Amino acid sequence: MSDQIRLKKGLNLPIAGAALCEVTARVAPDLVAVKPTDFRGLVPRLLVKEGDSVKAGTPLFADKKYTSMVFCSPVSGTVDAVIRGDKRKLLEVRVKADGKNEAVQFDVPKAASLDKKGMTELLLQCGLWPCLKQRPFGTIADPEAEPKAIFISGMNTAPLGADYEFTLKDDVADIQAGIEALGRLTKGGVHLSLCADSFSGSAFSKLTGVTFHQFSGPHPAGNVGVQINHISPINKGEVVWTVALPLVAVIGRFMRKGVYDTRRIIAVTGPAAVKPAYAEVPAGVSMKQLAPFFGSADELRVISGNVLTGEAVGREGFLGFYDDQVSVLKEGNYYEMFGWIKPLRSKKFSVSYAYPAFLRRKKYRMDTNENGGERPFLMNDVYGKMLPMDIYPLYLFKACLAGDLDKMEQLGIYEVIEEDVALCEYVCPSKIEIQNIIRQGIELMMKEM
After folding, report:
1. What is the pTM of this model?
2. Of the candidates 224, 228, 220, 245, which has an alpha carbon nearest to the alpha carbon of residue 163?
3. What are all long-range contacts of 290-298, with beta carbons under 8 Å and residues at least 24 apart?
4. Contact, 94 vs 61, CB < 8 A?
5. Where is 167: in which H helix or E strand?
6. pLDDT tens digits, residue range 406-438?
7. Greatest Cα-to-Cα distance within the chain, rounded to the nearest angstrom
8. Positive or negative CA dihedral for 422, 426, 429, 435?
9. What is the 3-state secondary structure (H, E, C) of 381-431?
10. Which of 149, 169, 309, 318 has minimal CB crowding within 10 Å?
């Protein structure tokens, strides 16, 4: 039996542009990029140079702290460019694909024959260890840590998020193999959370070797951090690991076939997308190859990820390592006369029901307009209504701003990362960049610890 947890706090953003449940493109990559900036806490050491030939699974760079932790090319081809930023910070390693799909073949023993050390070494060697994130702080999992448990979210409640029941319907065997591999890394077991409303009919409910939990409610009910808070809250000194369900399938595919294969089915969504649907791509694919979904419209914001937490990469950017969604919005670089004073704004969504549009259940063609600028930080309960966790978000944000480490600990900094407070930023009446405040608080905690 699995426990059922029903959450009432949160918000399902009524944004237009959901993907149709069909795969309309299977992209043969031309240019891909692996970005060290996707991995929090990483200090990369470059292992290749421009012009080098690589296969899928060839290490491109490694972590300076854990030299055995490598980050691999998702395709075979040639290193096209090494992009650096200020102070020669490594930003991207771009690989031009040759179309041959050659891959490094690893000798993979059965998961049952490996202990924690053996499984750790195997995942480090093949470049899949970065699939595991660590709470607190959302960094890459520490190979030397002893996690309390491993948590996986099998439901995606993010705005226009990919439907795992559709994108992973053919990968159940890989997910099962991935769960068996992850089970060797912890004594606390693997915990999988699924949607309570569709649990009985879900293909994932038949998986073995996991402890099931059922969640229902609006976003962020699908966030693994929210689920951990209700299943087994993180206390000071404790460590848990998390893995996104699509990456569990990638790990399982490696365990079954012995190759580094990061292909995934992503949702291309958003009110500005042309015929939103799904596409099969490798990690790091160039947005140029998804151009048919964007059309020729000017002033678009192309986001790797969802509209709340994704990174604006533009038409020239690349898909992030952890992302299974691309969102397309129109830039909201316009001003409205009288703004919120207007009594009727049928095309605007309001969380506070300030406009009569809430009387009709509809989807809104939202854009990036913030409808105002930053204002003084107001004391109200609007944030608490968006965060279904046992913390006081407003006081946590203020503790982060003040740099008060003791208060941050007491108020729950160990349990949240940016994605957990993204809705608080969306509804913030002061237009405060709350995700950035949490990031600064986390970085301060990491530095001091």
Report:
1. 0.95
2. 245
3. 290/25, 290/27, 290/326, 291/315, 292/25, 293/25, 293/268, 293/326, 293/328, 294/328, 297/272, 297/330
4. no
5. helix 164-167
6. 999 999 999 999 999 999 999 998 999 999 999
7. 68
8. positive
9. CCCCCCCCCCCCHHHHHHHHHHCCHHHHHHHCHHHCCHHHHHHHHHHCCCC
10. 169
